[in-house]
Design goal:
Blueprint lengths: L5 H16 L1 H4 L9 H20 L8 H20 L7 H13 L2 H21 L6 H84 L4 H28 L6 H9 L6 E6 L7 H22 L3 E8 L4 E8 L11 H12 L3 E5 L7 E7 L2
Parallel strand pairs: 1-2
Antiparallel strand pairs: 2-3, 3-5, 4-5
Helix pairs in contact: 3-4, 4-5, 4-6, 5-6, 5-7, 6-7, 7-8, 7-9, 7-10, 9-10, 10-11
């Protein structure tokens, strides 16, 4: 059973509050200035618009549908509160102000707060039985304070969420760089060993060849001395070769270990990684796959609003290594690769491979990257 997080519970509680504050008018306890049927229809449209706006609130990348829903909810709240200013209906304006932080610039949020407060002053001033003017001003100041506090609280939350995503993305990039740096260090070490082996073996073989050549042209004890020295050189050479082979036998980190290092324990995102046992790639292909997973995870954190990401690496029937990634986020109607995704495409094309993106599937955003076997 899928766990319901705190944001979903908060949304359900807010929906219950929105439904409750309209009950006095809907049940006839409070009479609105508008006909009750029209007021009820406006109330339903406003609540639905608030739910739609909340469902499409995406900090930094709000869709047009979310902004339109916010506009409808704002106008609807003004009509509802203006025609029935009694009770707790003014809470609608506080909700609108808090939700606007997700969808519009903060300057426009302050403008909405100002208009909401002006509407409250006018509505209460024209209503009967609200007491002297200073009580109206005090009540309006209270709701002004509630709107500003709510807006600032949501703004702080949005900034914290953005910083957390950026920090997580930076950690993923650091892990990928660490994995690639480790592989580069092992490659450099193998190169050093091969050079040392070449120098040692080359020198020893030259000495061995000279000793044997000298022994071939001598007889008796003179030849025997050269043979003894040649044997000593051969034994020393054999020891050097064995030492070099022992160092080269150290198994470098394989692709699975490198990818697990990149996707391990990412806050807010569950990554399910599967690497087939028959996958064998060279250093360049391994670097491309590690960078691909890093870019996919980073984009998922920043844009997808996903909870899970599945990544599989396997071989296909044509001898290529295929990376497939699928998240359960919101997808994208039109894929416009940024610098990261474009760099990913160029990296795989340079190796003779290809990358495909699909954001219109039934669930989330999908990436398929293919590279020929080394």
């Amino acid at each position: 059973m899928r766990k319901v997080d705190a944001e979903v519970w908060a949304g359900l509680v807010m929906l219950a509050v929105l439904l409750a504050i309209g009950l006095p008018v809907l049940t006839g306890v409070v009479s609105p200035e508008l006909p009750r049927l029209w007021w009820s229809l406006t109330y339903v449209v406003t609540v639905v618009a608030l739910v739609v706006a909340a469902a499409h609130s995406e900090p930094g990348h709000p869709p047009v549908s979310g902004r339109v829903a916010l506009g409808v909810a704002t106008v609807g709240a003004w009509v509802l509160v203006g025609s029935a200013p009694a009770g707790f209906l003014s809470i609608l304006l506080v909700v609108v102000a808090a939700l606007a932080v997700y969808l519009v610039p903060f300057g426009l949020v302050l403008a909405i707060v100002g208009l909401n407060t002006a509407l409250l002053v006018l509505a209460w001033a024209w209503a009967d039985g609200n007491g002297p003017w200073w009580e109206v001003v005090a009540a309006a100041a209270l709701y002004l304070f509630l709107q500003i506090v709510s807006a600032l609280s949501v703004l702080s939350l949005v900034r914290e969420q953005r910083l957390r995503r950026e920090l997580t993305a930076a950690h993923v990039e650091l892990r990928a760089a660490t994995a690639l740096l480790g592989e580069s260090a092992r490659t450099a070490e193998r190169l050093r060993i091969s050079r040392d082996l070449h120098d040692t073996v080359g020198h020893s073989l030259t000495v061995l060849s000279l000793e044997l050549e000298a022994a071939r042209h001598r007889e008796g004890e003179g030849a025997q001395a050269h043979v003894v020295r040649a044997g000593a050189v051969a034994r020393e050479l054999l020891g050097d070769v064995r030492a070099a082979v022992d160092e080269l036998r150290t198994r470098p980190t394989d692709l699975r270990e490198a990818l697990e290092q990149v996707v391990h324990d990412i806050p807010g995102l569950e990554v399910r990684l599967e690497v087939a046992g028959d996958v064998e790639v060279g250093e360049e292909e391994s670097a491309a796959l590690v960078r691909a997973v890093q870019e996919i995870v980073t984009n998922t954190l920043r844009h997808a609003q996903a909870r899970t990401l599945s990544v599989t690496v396997a071989r296909d029937g044509e001898g290529c290594t295929v990376l497939q990634a699928q998240d359960d986020g919101r997808g994208a109607a039109r894929v416009q690769p940024g610098h990261g995704l474009q760099g990913l495409v160029e990296r795989f094309e340079a190796l003779g491979g290809e990358v495909r993106f699909d954001g219109q599937g039934p669930a989330g955003f999908a990436v398929v990257a293919r590279v020929p076997a080394a």
